[in-house]
Design a protein that fits this description.
The chain has about 140 residues and is α/β, with parallel strands linked by helices. It has a single domain, classed as Trna Endonuclease, Chain: A, domain 1. The chain is about 35% helix and about 25% strand. It has helices spanning about 5-15, 70-90, 105-115, 115-120, and strands spanning about 20-25, 35-40, 45-50, 95-105, 125-130, 135-140. Strands 1-2-3-4-5-6 form a six-stranded mixed sheet. Strand 5 and strand 6 (about 135-140) form a beta hairpin. The chain is globular and about 45 Å long.
């Protein structure tokens, strides 16, 4: 099971391998945009909100156990909201992109698939992180 920190680390590795420099990387206990990356040749920025498939907090009831379907729904909803907020507030109109990064799990696929037309219309990217810790697919991002 990937927690949010695992997703953040996978996304940063993926982006660095595709010409981005990481300007900000937050952990689960920090507030704000989880990852801010800048493409070294174009200058475009990517603002990433990340969600995990389990809790990263030792001692929590979900530590090391997968989130329930209702918890994934809640995380998807909050993640989508934060990503849209990043899309509206932080982009400078010069190619910046807001993205949501999540584990490649059935319930995330189900919930995000249901709103994919809106995701695509807004120009928001989705990064899917495999159980092995690699970005295995992306929607709306040419990396």
């Amino acid at each position: 099971m990937l927690d949010e920190n695992d997703v953040i680390n996978a996304v940063c590795r993926h982006l660095e391998g595709r010409g981005y420099s990481i300007e900000r990387r937050l952990g689960t206990t920090q507030k704000g945009v989880d990852v801010v990356a800048r493409h070294t040749s174009t200058g475009h920025r990517l603002f990433v909100e990340a969600k995990g498939g389990t809790s990263s907090r030792e001692g929590s009831s979900r530590f090391g156990r997968p989130y329930t379907q209702s918890q994934v729904f809640d995380l998807t909803s909050k993640g989508f909201f934060a990503t849209v907020r990043n899309h509206v507030e932080r982009r400078d109109g010069r190619g910046d992109v807001a993205a949501l990064a999540v584990p490649d799990l059935q319930w995330y696929r189900e919930y995000l698939g249901a709103i994919r037309p809106a995701v695509d219309q807004l120009g928001i990217a989705v990064l899917w992180v495999s159980a092995g810790g690699d970005v295995c697919e992306s929607w709306g991002l040419d990396t």
